[in-house]
Amino acid sequence: MERNCTEQENEVDASFDVGTDEEQERQTQPSVESDANDSTNLAIRFKSDIHYAAKLRTADDDAFPSKETKVRPQVYREDSAQEQPTIAGKRKRELSPELSPKFELFHPREEELNAWQLDESASEFVQRLPPSTALVSTYTGIWAENPHRNPRNKLPCPRVDYFKTCGKKLLEQSLNNRHKIWESSATLPKGCLAVKLIQEGKALQQRVFKLARDTYVHPGKWMLLVKKVDVDRVWKQIVDGVIGNQLGCSCKMTTSDRSDECLVCVYTKDFEDTKDVLRVLQGLERIGLVSAAKVIYYKPDAYTYLNLGNGKAAKYVLPPTLYNSRPMLASQKASKLAFMTQEEGFSA
């Protein structure tokens, strides 16, 4: 009995291990279908490995970006659904309220009764102080300042007293030079003498202008002679333009009881800034105060401080004013017309 059981177990083990001849042949010879499946599985695993490696490399680059791979962070603001403005790939930096420039209205003549105030319009100012009836004994001049100024563009305070002292010395020196020219040119033709005197006048003008620059005496003004019957209307137009930042930095109306005319001055910051001088002149032209028939003149404050009026300026062979509105406007219009003609030629 025991023998039979052992023999049966051995027979089953032998049949399981060995099997038939056909089964042994199938086991020893791998099929073509199995090889194909194995190749497909390997390819899938290879692609998966590559994809996994790429993921790892991307994660490394995000954590430690190299110089070659720059990762631009995407910023999202919860308080705004709009995309942040960018400049050259970078988010535009917003100024904090403390750093934002504030252009507050500036008024150097605050609480001066003969000047326009911030809390009144041009009409209210003229009604309060009409230039046609202003008392000369009370106010020698009426002012209006342009309140729209950049506080960062502060100009140095003019050294008027020093300019006057040095300017008078320049005038005396020029007179001595003129006497020497007369003495040395006594035997020369009058034409040669005139040329030398004109050259001395131009040299004096350049010396005065240099002194004005060194002492910060930069301002100048367009001067308008207005009849008293029209002065209230004209003055209101000019004040409205100045306080509205359309004309110069300030304006002044000089009261006088000697004639039927009043002098109105519209100031600019720098008499050598011809672009700004022309801009103010064009503004006066737009409101009808200047034309080819209505000529006005520009005079630097340097001339005023040295009392270089018509008579005294001629003594030094100097022009009493610096700019004339007629040639200045004509030159600007001619250059503009030439530019337009040139553009038409290019377009044709």
UniProtKB/TrEMBL annotation:
**Pfam families linked:** Bles03
Extract the InterPro entries matched here. Answer: Bles03 (IPR015034), TIF_eIF4e-like (IPR023398)
Q: Which domain of life is it from?
A: Eukaryota
SUPFAM superfamilies (UniProt xref): eIF4e-like (SSF55418)
Instruction: Locate the compositionally biased regions of type Polar residues.
Output: 27-40
UniProt feature, compositional bias: Basic and acidic residues: 57-80
Region annotation Disordered: where it falls in the sequence: 1-40, 57-94
Which portions of the chain have biased composition (kind: Acidic residues)? 8-24
Q: Which family does it belong to?
A: Belongs to the UPF0696 family.
Name of this chain's protein: DUF1917-domain-containing protein
